């Protein structure tokens, strides 16, 4: 990246008072979690069924064992730690100038870095609940079992993750829209902007400064400063003043 892009991003961060970060799977690839659509991503590996089906509500209901085999193997397998992007955002929030992180990720790495105001559009692997009695379980409880995890009541435990074919949580969407609509700057990073309705939320932005950080293609975002670099490496160079 030319230094000029870093300088422009630094200026945007410096003058912003209500910055919103809108992220996707590319925010966690530098933590070792593969995304879906990069060349090494999940969609370019071969499975019995396409990933959209393996992570669908139908698969969870009709083929619960297959669902959990894939989910344990491909979603829960990583002992990931926050990277420079997660840490930068947590530090910026402490200054009061980052109003929210809106993420499509389900890995909990923003909270692990210390971020407090995180709208998880697609839920989190860290929350799980019994489909029979509603009791909640953390990730450790799911990992402690093999195959399909069960509640002591006998019910099947389901991750509180939005599977394909399921709707997003209303309060989470409303909170994310409000934060985006009130933001004076927004950084969109590590997302292909292809998964709806999540990707559609960026249209609520009315602020001044829009930045896209993506290694590959992120569609057409009119008026954005486009930084074609790794998000962790990029945000790791930005100073919090
Ligand atoms: P995606 O469609 O896989 O797109 C990822 C994007 O990030 C691509 O455009 C890449 O070019 C880009 N990218 C990859 N690495 C970097 C990097 N280091 N720096 C900058 N850009 C990078 O993922 P989306 O988030 O757009 O799609 C939404 C899905 C993916 C959501 O439903 C997520 O739940 C799901 N997902 C989440 C995780 C996670 O929680 N970490 C992992 C894999 C998939």
Q: Helix fraction?
A: 25-40%
CATH class of the domain at 1-33 and 82-122 and 167-241, anyone?
Answer: Alpha Beta
Q: What are the low-pLDDT stretches, counting only 5+ consecutive residues below 50?
A: none
Bound molecules: carba-nicotinamide-adenine-dinucleotide
At CATH level 2, the architecture of the domain at 1-33 and 82-122 and 167-241 is 3-Layer(aba) Sandwich
Find the count of extended strands (DSSP E, 2+ residues): 9
Q: What integer is the average pLDDT? A: 94
Question: Radius of gyration over alpha carbons?
Answer: 18 Å
**Strands ordered across the widest β-sheet:** 3-2-1-7-8-9
Distance N to C terminus: 22 Å
Strand content: 15-25%
Number of helices: 9
The biggest beta sheet is recorded as: 6 strands, parallel
Query: So what's the overall shape?
Result: globular
CATH topology of the domain at 1-33 and 82-122 and 167-241: Rossmann fold
Explain the overall architecture:
By secondary structure, the protein is an alpha/beta fold. It has a domain at 1-33 and 82-122 and 167-241: TPP-binding domain (Rossmann fold, 3-Layer(aba) Sandwich), CATH 3.40.50.1220. The chain has nine helices and nine strands. It has helices spanning 3-15, 51-54, 57-62, 64-75, 84-94, 109-113, 139-143, 170-182, 231-235, and strands spanning 19-23, 98-103, 118-120, 123-130, 136-137, 157-161, 185-189, 209-213, 225-227. The strands form two sheets. It has a six-stranded parallel beta sheet, with helices on both faces. The longest helix has 13 residues, at 3-15. The protein is globular, with a radius of gyration of 18 Å. The mean pLDDT is 94. The structure holds carba-nicotinamide-adenine-dinucleotide. Residues 24-26, 28-30, 33, 35-38, 41, 104-107, 122, 190-192, 194-195, 213-216, 218, 230-231 line the site of carba-nicotinamide-adenine-dinucleotide.
